[in-house]
Amino acid sequence: MKAFTVVCLLAVVSASLAGRQLHPLSDEFIAEINSKQSTWKAGRNFDISEYGLFKKLASGSKGIKNRDSLVTRLHDEDVEIPESFDSREAWPECADIIGLIRDQSRCGACWAFAAAEAMSDRICIHSNGERKILVSSQDVLTCTEDCGCDGGYLDIPWSTWYSNGYVTGGLYNNTDQGCKSYFLPNCEDHPNRCTNYVDTPECLRQCDDTSLNYEAQKTYGQVPSAFWNEKQIKLEILKYGPVETGFTVYEDFASYKSGIYQHVSGAAEGGHAVKIIGWGVENGVKYWTIANSWNERWGEEGFFRILRGVNECGVEDEVVSGLPDFSKF
């Protein structure tokens, strides 16, 4: 009878441990990630107390709202595509714009940041480096319909760039970078880290420096386009520059440090928007090179790489872009 009782207790304990879920920001979960795969390394980016911040950062993309209204631009597939490509190297005169990592801070504004960044890149690229200006992530965040700090759609900023335009503007408290600077400091520089979340500010149609004319600071785009497969995405970047995309964020992504990300552990947290700047191959593994908006201390100096060609986490499903319309600004 005693032996039977011991066996039962061991079975209960074993089942309990097997069913136990590790906290997604715990050292144990990070160790589990590293034990399951070899293409990327996990480490600590967020304290366990910052789980709410991670969830906020990981749920800013609502996907594409009006897919049917986007033009599907088809590129000639006979063009030779290089095995690796980096927009910073392809357009060195714009490398500082393309390589700039912004920080969305404690607002779910990834959709606005990725759009503003890709727009800025393309203005520089298609002016041959003569117009090195930043499109204001603040203007995109606050003046785009149905979007805000609780998330936004990937296509709406590009449609708004075409119809209404967005002004210039850069990082927090920097009036030298254009009309409207971002309203929040970097999380790393904030005394309380980023524990308190914020509402979306109102759309102010004026510059931080009131001597600047708001309308005169606007930039405009052409009708936006969408792309649904690896080859067309590569051809778009190769010809026109970085693009915006969205993907599903899983709990393990919080601990990304380096390498080629693929989902291995944890549940889905939400959607996140980012900017693809190129692609490559490492040890036979194909990847996209992507700029994040969680500051340059995260990941590979603000960037990360993710599996390419298998639609990892849906990263090849929601690619949107547009060209600048220089006839309007």
List keywords for this structure.
single chain; about 325 residues; alpha+beta; Cathepsin B, Chain A; seven-stranded mixed beta sheet; 9 helices; about 25% helix; disordered N terminus
How would you explain this protein's 3D organization?
There is one protein chain. The chain is an alpha+beta fold. It has one domain (24-321): Cysteine proteinases (Cathepsin B, Chain A, Alpha-Beta Complex), CATH 3.90.70. The protein contains 9 helices and 12 strands. The strands form 3 sheets. Strands 1, 3, 7, 8, 9, 10 and 11 form a 7-stranded mixed beta sheet that branches. The longest helix is centred in the first third of the chain and has 18 residues, at 2-19.
Number of strands: 12
Succession of helices and strands: HHEHEEHHHHHEEEHEEEEEE
Give the tally of structural domains: 1
CATH class: Alpha Beta
Task: State the major sheet.
Answer: 7 strands, mixed
Number of helices: 9
Can you tell me the CATH superfamily?
Cysteine proteinases
* Shape call: globular
Write down the Rg: 21 Å
